[in-house]
Amino acid sequence: MEGSPVKTREAYVWPEEKAKLRRRAIRLEWATLVAMASVVIVLYFVLGSSQAMRTAWTEDILGLVPAAAYLVAVSFERRGPTERFPFGFYRAVSVAYLVGATATLLVGAYLLADNAIKLVNLEHPTIGLMSIAGYEVWGGWVMMAALLYSILPPVVLGRLKLPVAREIHDKPLMADASMQKADWMTGLGAIVGIAGVGFGLWWADAAAALFISLSVIRDGAGHVGRAIGDLSDRIPHTVDRDAVHPAIKAAREAAADVAGVGKAAVKFREEGHLLTGVVYVEMTEAGNVAERMDQVRRSVEKSDWRLYDISVVPLPRGEI
Questions:
Q1: CATH fold for the domain made of 247-315
Q2: Three-state DSSP class for 265?
Q3: What is the 3-state secondary structure (H, E, C) of 69-129?
Q4: What are phi and psi for residue 156, nearest 5 degrees?
Q5: Fold match between 16-231 and 247-315?
Q6: pTM
Q7: Domain locations in the chain?
Q8: What confidence tier does 1 reach under pLDDT thresholds 50, 70, 90?
Q9: Composition of the chain by helix, strand, coil, percent to 5
């Protein structure tokens, strides 16, 4: 028979302060889609034969993927647990993190190979004249102006996303912010490459494109590793410095502070924005075990807003 006779877990209710930040994160991702789409359109019309320009344009297209994946994941996350999915869709955010990180890594690898081949084959880029309002100007100036525009949205949006990502433990948002850092670095690198071509350094364009590709690969590889770790139930880590999450220590101390409890140990995993798992406690006093376990659960869940649906298991003395 489909389904389970056991009641599904209760849907997680975000604290109001954190819910406001979450709504802000969603608005920032919609703004990212609009802003980066405009950048992609502007760069498309001035691509020319520059490899640095094409690499920057490709990365900006790639920059749409994390934001789109995030918005899709959040729409699933809101549904909460169902009979068919009794644990809910909270890990959809972790899946979005992996999707965005993998896209970054794969495209970075492709760009590296493509640009390396062109550099080895000694392909000389040509940047000709463009007609602007009836005047003939060197195309490099137009390209650099477009690249300067492409730098602005990533710089602004990336800085706005970082504090929000830290406050709501949002790794996909943090990955998107770091990718936007790569976006503006890409723009600066492409400007240097085009300027180099203007000075007769034909290899500067491809060299700048290679530098951009390596930056993309580095970011992608780091985030892929962390996303796989989260989905493989690695111990929870922070979103920025990738350190062990402080909620683990806080939960252990909160459990041990309950009357009648001696030692305590925890085993947590990440579910998107949330942390869940098991708390093991040694009982030092006789009494109503069920009531004391409920006290431990409530104390632990109050220790950090991310802790959700915690199970408590009593153990004999000496087991922890």
A1: Alpha-Beta Plaits (3.30.70)
A2: strand
A3: HHHHHHHHHCCCCCCCCCCCCCCHHHHHHHHHHHHHHHHHHHHHHHHHHHHHCCCCCCCCE
A4: -70, -50
A5: no
A6: 0.82
A7: 16-231, 247-315
A8: very low
A9: 60, 10, 30
